[in-house]
Design a protein that fits this description.
By secondary structure, this protein is an alpha/beta fold. The protein has 15 helices and 24 strands. Strand 22, helix 12 and strand 23 form a beta-alpha-beta unit. The longest helix is centred in the middle third of the chain and has 14 residues. The two termini are 19 Å apart.
Amino acid sequence: MDRMVIRGGVALRGTVEVSGSKNATLAILCAALLTDEPLILRNVPRLRDVDTALALLSRLGARYSWLSDHDLELQAAQLHSHEAPYDLVKTMRASFLVLGPMLARAGRARVSTPGGCAIGARPVNLHIAGIRALGARIQMRHGYVDAHAARLNGARIWLDTPSVGATENILMAAVRARGSTQIENAAREPEIQDLAAALSAMGAQIRGAGTHVIEVEGVERLHGAEHRVIPDRVEAGSMMAAAAITGGDVTVRGVVAEHLEAVIAKLADTGTEVISGPDGIRVKRQGELRPVELRTLPYPGFPTDLQAQMMALLTQARGTSVINETIFENRFMHALELTRMGADIIIKGSTAIVRGPTNLSGAPVMATDLRASMGLILAGLVADATTELDRVYHLDRGYEALDRKLAALGARIERVRAGERAAEAELS
Ligand code: UD1
């Protein structure tokens, strides 16, 4: 397996361009199932998760071609299969998002349930309850959700928790249901707004995306469209944290500052200078970092997908920081790896207490998920000696060309391919 090798100690400087949003792309790719006409998507990030989604959509009968590096044309003229198999859903939970659109288009869908995950149980009960409320007959057997509905009917749906995935799945089912649907306590994430924008371009009638109540007036059919995916706010936040932790000066380009308000506010609390301008967001840090208290929350609160990166940063702040993770119950696996690098972190339930500043020392580390991997990369950027991050495939799921982007800012980071490593070992 490939590794990322980092030699820390360089303050990052320069400009970095953010790719398109992974999470928005994954949802919008599934939306292509709602029409037999082509969907052209621009600013699509080149990621392993996008490849997985395309493999799944191909199995269902869709065809795609890359028009250029980041522009994709996708068409589900006919659906040959109605089954999202376990092997694909288990590698990427977002595969479960085909349930709503496939059912709305074809009247049936058989989708494997995702099972547990490294960061928590992550059930899909809200997806299923919502789609049932739209009139689908759903049976759960042999690890699959079997759903049938000749035509879905609009309904009023209350989500117990503003789940991003459940909001997306229900929204994609409701756009072709008969009558109107209200999704209450809906997730408000920018990725939901982007999905709604893509669906609207396809002819859906949606109001209120980005608020707690989304209203949908079902339409008979959707048509082809062209849509540009929003920038990835998690990648942007990760690069901002990289600038802050190394005491650098980096401009992150191609971002929507409004999507990052909570992150900008927290970084500013640490004493990092954050300036939003027409060229992007400039992040500069000269003095010492201050400790902060932080709570992950649904948007517009601080995103759980940047919690690991913030934890790495706070190991360098003078004093005690407190991080409260409220979205996922097991999302502190990176804390143990950071501790192995010399961080002083105590975990008590869903709270992490980080005391700093600590001198981090490079070590072989490995991560259990995508964002935890990024937290460890950030730690490696300030650690002495060499940090070797294993299981790079986690990073490939969600960060496009991460090593090249960081290296362009001056970081000493190198991806060592599995084959090269074996050859090195033979020589030495
Ligand atoms: C999405 C994002 C992920 C992000 C997360 C929270 C994608 C592909 N992934 O994941 O990067 O970390 O939002 O911002 O967009 N829950 C239930 N029942 C359900 C669904 C969710 O109890 O049916 C709970 C989950 O266990 C979790 C919380 O709701 O505690 C939020 O999860 P959710 O918003 O659904 O996250 P995902 O859509 O899986």
